[in-house]
Design a protein that fits this description.
Chains A, B: Pfam families: TetR_C_16, TetR_N. The structure is a homodimer. Chain A is mainly alpha-helical. Chain A contains 11 helices and no strands. The structure holds a DNA duplex.
Chain lengths: ~210, ~210
DNA sequence: GTCTATAATATGATAGAC
DNA sequence: GTCTATCATATTATAGAC
């Protein structure tokens, strides 16, 4: 029992090093994508040896999985439900089209302010890495379900997919391609310009809503 | 002069083999992206040796450049101007917002029907390859300029960028990610759903148009 | 708990044979 | 004009030393 709380235990030490590695990996995967990020570069950036990274995470695939599994699935209605402790993340919310629009815009506003690096790692890699693509599909599905639920139209699923694709394009060009107009614009500017666009997709024409599945 | 036109000249033979290699490369770059496409795989797919590919194109970078330089820059107003021999590709066209919307939708419709593989090669690779990213920026610029010209608003450049980002997202999810809803939808369905969205971005509110740059 | 040494493989590129 | 052989390098991954 020498120095009961002074020095970190081996487990704490390991956890700390693991975190440094994960942080370095997250950043590099987000900046360069899966293929162009090497174990060596991650280790060097974390100030450790490449062998240690392998020892802790087993393989590059598993390291990438650990980095991207922490990516928060964007909950469309997180904001609309007040963001309190009440609503579960996966819970479906029978919102109106207007609520869906505003919730989606709020969610987009957060992402335009500060998109998590783990999400950028997925977005950067998903066109050339099957695991990343799966991760994206899985993460996007609840959002798609929520939107589809809220859109009163026979083609609600396609409308939801278009909304998702639009957000994908905007985030990709702002953060990954860094096209100047989109990278420099304020979240508010973008939100304001996209609101009518989103409204048109969440709100179906009157006859469409009454229509059949054809 | 034995058999003046019967057998192909060496130049013709070479050109033919080059074309086979380019076709194979185009397809593989579009399917797997730059990094995951190997010279060996291209050669094998073209039915030749890897050394020959290097001999003809010099390097992998140059091969990719040859594949992607043939990607047609989408001209927004190609359709609106009648598609005849009159308008140059780079010529600016002082269209109205409504004309811009319809031209952009027509252009998108073509791409939703049959996006060229050389464009897909660029789109697939541009998040992880600087050359591909430059190619995309260069190809998108004329379209952005045309759109900005046609949108009567102080934030016309941001509106144009958003339109471009939206198209990018839709094309990427349809062809590269192959998300089912977007991959299965008909061009007409997508066009119809996006028309109001595009209209809202090309058409500024009345006071905005009269406003200053603030 | 961390690092060194090395295996096993794959790649872009080059030189030269036929 | 096309292919064989090879170089030089870089990577993930493993085994074992300290």
């Amino acid at each position: 029992m020498t120095e009961p709380t002074a020095r970190p235990t081996r487990a704490q030490q390991r956890r700390q090093t693991e975190d440094r590695i994960l942080t370095a990996a997250r950043q590099l995967f987000a900046e360069r994508g899966y293929d162009r990020t090497t174990i060596r570069a991650v280790a060097s950036s974390a100030g450790v040896d490449a062998g240690l990274v392998m020892h802790y995470f087993g393989s590059k695939d598993l390291l990438f999985a650990r980095v991207t599994e922490t990516a928060p699935a964007p909950d469309v209605f997180q904001a609309a439900t007040g963001g309190g402790a009440g609503a579960e993340a996966g819970e479906l919310y029978g919102g109106t089209p207007d609520e869906a629009t505003e919730a989606l815009l709020t969610s987009l506003g957060r992402r335009l302010t500060d998109e998590p690096e783990s999400s950028l790692a997925v977005l950067r890699s998903m066109l050339t890495n099957a695991d990343a693509a799966d991760r994206y599909r899985t993460a996007a599905q609840p959002q798609l379900d929520q939107l589809t639920e809220a859109i009163p139209a026979p083609d609600a699923d396609l409308r939801a997919s278009l909304l998702s694709a639009i957000i994908h394009g905007v985030i990709a060009e702002r953060y990954l391609l860094r096209l100047t107009n989109l990278a420099d614009a304020s979240p508010e500017q973008i939100i304001t310009l996209l609101r009518p666009c989103f409204e048109s997709l969440t709100t179906a024409p009157a006859d469409d809503a009454a229509d059949g599945q054809g």
